[in-house]
## 1
Amino acid sequence: MLGSTAAMKAAKKGYKRYGIPGALAAGGGVILGIRFVKRRFLSGTGEDDTGDGAATTDEQ
């Protein structure tokens, strides 16, 4: 819900300044930014990072 409210406010501000293209750019930018933040910071890492850099294949 917070994301849609922020996108609506940004779209209104962009519309007042630059018209329809400004509303689309501002609203879309906020939506993409919120998605980035949620994926980057709020989700756990599902990768198993061992950090040694060794290959796990049996071919030699």
## 2
Amino acid sequence: MAGVTPGKTFTPGLDFSAQSYSHLADKVEADVSRAHHIIKEKLPLLGELKALLSIAFGDKAPFFIDARSGTAAVLDSVDDEPDTRLNIKPEYISQFYDGKLEPRYGLFKDAFFNEASMPSGRIPVAIKFADLLTPHPPVPPKTADKFDRLPQPTEDLDQVRRDVNEFGYGIAKNVLTAEQVAIMKKAVQEQAAGERDAGIAQVDGGPNGPNQRLWTLVNKGDDFLDLLNHPIIDEMIPWFLGEHAIITTYTANIARPGNVPMQLHTDQVAVQPPIRDLAFGMNIMFYLEDVTEKNGATRVYPGSHIGQIAPPDIFTVDGTAAAAAPAGSALIFESRLWHATGPNREESGERPVILLFFMRSFIRQQENNFLSLRKDVWPKLSDRVKRMLGFYTTGALGGVDGEVREGLFVEWKEGVGKMRAAHGR
């Protein structure tokens, strides 16, 4: 792949190290040149920034877009401190322009590995800059207070489906009994305590990391395997994603007091180029505590799943709705909806939930179950769960050694895949 050094050659005569179609330095210069050309082309629109923006392409000297007067100009130097500083790969400018990269993903994805690439200053300016480069700049979502009604917890699953279609989310009430809530809550809390004691807890939610996330729940107790038999899955997932949808992640999220809101995002952010016309996934979030606006309810922009919609600032939940509901409920939302973990402003307690996220069968799973599934868990898996985890052929996908007939299970044995027909045939 581009940017990855080829490995060693095994076969004499097949050494391609001296063969090249392009030179990296030439490509970088071409990317920089096109980025500058795009920015100059878009200057009439960039006046909307009404700010002073500094842009650097890697280690190259920064240049500036001065749009403070409402008319944008490119400058080599300025005396004033920029409102926003942006260090970005020049090819991302082209990808924004070509509609191949969603701005809120492209602007921040490299910051996970390189802090210098994190925009600084007024972040909404950087977001709007990237939006204005795209073929169809998004519009802000409608704020929650502008709706006559919002989804409420209900036992009517047809109403939940209608709410998902209209608002991007619905809330199913009494999905778990009080006893089932207690069992699952205990399972989550014991696993969380074990990971903290072992020093392997994965935390976020601010400088002190008050939130805790548990990953790959399929490995972490029979309780979590049993939850995969819940009929709410069969009611919602095939209806929305088709019969072959697969689990992309199976996790728990514990929001504790003192956290900060998660940045707003959609659950199909990894689908690039960005596609808004089709939902690729659906999340079922089981509430193991009464979830309120105060203790960290998931924040959502109702109706933000339809159309070219994106929030101008992903670091605030102002204008969103809190998806509050009693313990035992399930928040069901589709993957285009803009949402985030809310702030827990209680002084004590915690807000534990289990998230079961499905994607269409042709989308690569976030969790690589073929490698992360523990060997001792494999014998416990029913055919139902194996299908959910992707150990099943659908159409021309998921085979081993070219065998991809519809309806074959991939049997995992000593790390080597082999096939068997469904129903033991």
## 3
Amino acid sequence: MNKVSQAPPRVRRVSPDNTPKATKASIIGGLVGVFIELYDNAVYGFVAGTLAVVFFPSDAPTTSVLLTFLAFAIPFFFRPLGAAVAGSWGDRIGRKRVLLVLITMMSLSTALVGFLPSYAVAGVWAPIALVLLRFIQGFAMGGEPGNGNSFLAEHAGEGRRGRVVSYANAATFIAMLLGTLFAALLTAVLSSSSMEAWGWRLPFLLALPLGVVGLIIRRMADESPEFAEAEEEGRVTGSPLREALASRETRRAMGTTIVLPLLNSSGYFILFIYMPSFMKDEMHFSALEGLLVTAIMLAVGTFAVLYAGRLSDRVGRKRMLSTSAFTMVVIGFPCYWLLTRGSFATATVGAVLMSLCFAGTNGVMQVTLAELFPTRIRTVAYGVGYNLGTAIFGGAAPLLVAGLIAATGSTWIPAIYLVLTSAVAGVAALRIRETAFEPLKR
């Protein structure tokens, strides 16, 4: 294995514009899946307040919200399993086949949430069914990052991987923006009783037609040229996870995939998933105001991640990641203070500044992780490490933060969590090797 991984890298030839026509179609196919995955996942957070009433009725509203975020967090601990299984498949049979399976699983499980009966109708079986469907979502989400982002990085061509993979990060922002605007629209036009009776179902049901479109587009994509070449040359391994864990160098790189994305994980769930509920329940903004602040953050972040990815191809991944993380450490508390002033305008300013710091990390993170591993074990090694960190520091973040606020009475808990994880991520970024200017490992 060492001889293979140390072989002289080759540079794949591309057309003058550095983007073969087939590659463009394949990149779109990769982006569609990422878009749908993040939309499906984000919808849950955006209607969490309503789901708390529908599936976890309680005389104590805080208890209902905590139970709702517990249902949000549990599937994230299935993500490493999804990464291990789907990542191994991706390294053995190809990225494209696995991505077709994952988008089907994710879309169907999300749409089925929209058909579930409420607690009032089915009793305890309603939240049980919700959690079971969330398990399926967790498995699919676990397999998506390693396969999807490796697929994009391997199609990108030299010198533009940051730019191409940042398209996927922008797609996640657009997906969350769509979910936010949909939730905001429903909140604005429906009464609370209508929202709880049937309105909450609509964002979940939208996953079905989105999934059909995504499946069609992904079927049109080409297999990753890196994997196709590895298969042709007989470099595909039958046990990619075992091979990854057998190498000390790879185990160390997998450890990096757990720690390096700390800001990516905490920022995503604190700023975009938990923020609407936090602004409504703790800061006493209206539900619509909380959603609108989130929508503005996402709109700004969409352009920021594209710029960050493109810039990282010029200045390097390491500089982008460390600068973004340490900037968040500096501005985290002042920006959070703006959120607590009770003004929509100042809350928006603070949220947008934090969103820009997050975008500097988010726009570069996935390509950095893909560049750490060789083709033969890339999807499984990248996926397992990344999803372990996401489960621990991201999926559990809303539950942890909501629980600590309830226990301490301090509304500064989200800022403390965000700043601490940013500091650790910044230190980790300083310790990685620069990979932006090298070919992908074989």
